[in-house]
User: Which sequence fits this backbone?
DNA sequence: ACCGTCTAGCTAACAGTGTTAGCCAAGCGA
DNA sequence: TCGCTTGGCTAACACTGTTAGCTAGACGGT
């Protein structure tokens, strides 16, 4: 339908299949059978495409966390989604949030599952987010030594809590 | 002395003063009064420069953490250094570790302060790193809402621990 | 049926990126 | 003095995002 959405679709496929450096204006145009400058008839520039991808990634992440009933399963879901969609996770998380371009409610929707698990405690939810994000980010960057038992790290981190009154639980 | 080190020096200054997108081969050459291709007489390519910067950043971070006696002051030192040197922190942490190019001991030196604070517990140290890194990374990316009380988040996170038997402590 | 306008494509071009090839002057050891 | 190595140089290539300007076709109004 919308050519703009078509462009973002292609960008998302390209990002997941070939990595961020493959998401190039000319490559996008190729994939659509047009020339690169024609993209600018539908999109202001590459940053706008990236912002659209970021919004999608946040929505996907939020959807993946929605079903988790408690802290351990939320942690597992968070990590699992990030590992399955590393490029999307990166773009969701590394890019400074373009809050103006972002459709309203997207940020809140992504935050909701964390807040639910901390019983509405905002500070605890932010700490939990930091913890989960940090572990995932370091794992994705290959920063833990090759043999590191990350399941144990997650279990330890979530078991020792961050959220008040949550129980311990193995993750993988 | 070594022209190679001179190049990395300039790269570091440029990175901190003008941001990563300013660290360009031609800009580096300009700063040294030579032409860009001449850089390749001393350096294999840009990735090598980035690896050298990453190594430096790790050493600087390790030095900043060295003096911290306990968990709360370590957390404060970690956050303070990252906020004061956001570009260096990024390059230390975002780049996949080029372990071969890295001088031996650098990684261990950066990890040591965390391990000390967790009483040698490797799993706890990794969880702690994940927590600190996640909080810092999200803060640097501007991902917490404008009014968020991050001091409280740090206090909560570190107070509720991750390391066994550490006490609570305000951070800012 | 014609006229005008808007849409969505096109080519050519620009400034910038990392990088390679090939030339050349200066220094230095045998 | 010869020859080699060092560290510069210019020119060029393939790539990046982006702009200007042209044009074919569709659509609506008179």
Assistant:
């Amino acid at each position: 339908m919308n050519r703009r959405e078509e462009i973002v679709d292609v960008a998302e496929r390209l990002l997941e299949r070939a990595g961020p450096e493959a998401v190039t204006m000319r490559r996008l145009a190729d994939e659509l059978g047009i020339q690169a400058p024609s993209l600018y008839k539908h999109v202001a520039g590459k940053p706008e495409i990236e912002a659209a991808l970021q919004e999608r990634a946040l929505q996907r992440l939020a959807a993946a966390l929605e079903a988790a009933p408690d802290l351990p399963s939320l942690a597992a879901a968070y990590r699992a989604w990030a590992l399955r969609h590393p490029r999307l996770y990166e773009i969701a998380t590394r890019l400074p949030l373009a809050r103006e371009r972002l459709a309203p409610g997207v940020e809140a929707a992504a935050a909701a599952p964390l807040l639910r698990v901390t019983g509405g405690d905002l500070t605890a939810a932010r700490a939990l987010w930091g913890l989960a994000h940090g572990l995932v980010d370091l794992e994705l960057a290959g920063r833990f030594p090759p043999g590191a038992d990350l399941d144990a790290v997650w279990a330890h981190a979530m078991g020792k809590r961050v959220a008040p009154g949550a129980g311990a639980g193995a993750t993988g």
Residues 46-66 of chain B form the longest helix (21 residues).
